[in-house]
Amino acid sequence: MRKKLLVGNWKMNKTMAEAKSFALAALPLVSYAESKNIDIGVCPTYLSLDIVKKTNPKLIIGAQNVDYHTHGAYTGEIAINMLQEIDIDWALVGHSERRSYYGETNASCNLKVKALLASAITPLYCVGETLAEFEGGLTKSVVERQVREGLKDLTKEDAKKIVLAYEPVWSIGTGKNASQAIAEEVCHFIRTILDDLFAEVSEEIRILYGGSVKPDNVRTYLSSPNIDGALVGGASLQVDSFRALIENIAE
Description:
By secondary structure, the protein is an alpha/beta fold. The protein has twelve helices and eight strands. The two termini are 17 Å apart.
């Protein structure tokens, strides 16, 4: 059985002081989650990665983005070895905001995924369709292309080390939720693609749902057979709501 996973994406929120305060308050949450067989983590800004890692070392800490180059004239980017220097071993890849605002493509995501795996860092690869694509009935074709191109040339051993997240762009930060039925249908569809690509290990790969996930709906989503956890935005910013998410997953 796949272990449940809750990851908070803080986006461009929290000063270092605020991040440290959260990390301290979340210390007992890690032990509680462990007792319920749930993995939990957060993705702070680059500036807060080190302080959150040092303050709460058992919490999964992921970067929100990373460059696949090892070094060079790439202003504003962060290389994988820079993350390794502060013991960061997870990273988001292909979040819709990176795709929409900064031109990230399936091809660049693929380069990032392969570079992270080569450095023993877990990629949390995000896929999802826009509102126009959803309304046009293109959800599955868009998601299939993102999965196949983003995971191109991975071995079965590589595939066992990744996590996927389905985040319909039209439900992120909008308050519009994809229904449980829609979320499960797409996550099941992703599972069939993984089965085609990595048949022997596809059942081991965790698939998360993200998009206006809150304490009052997380349990419903995670009751679906192909939804193994949640990638959460706003509801992960406060310790109380983060705790409520964990508690509702555990029940």
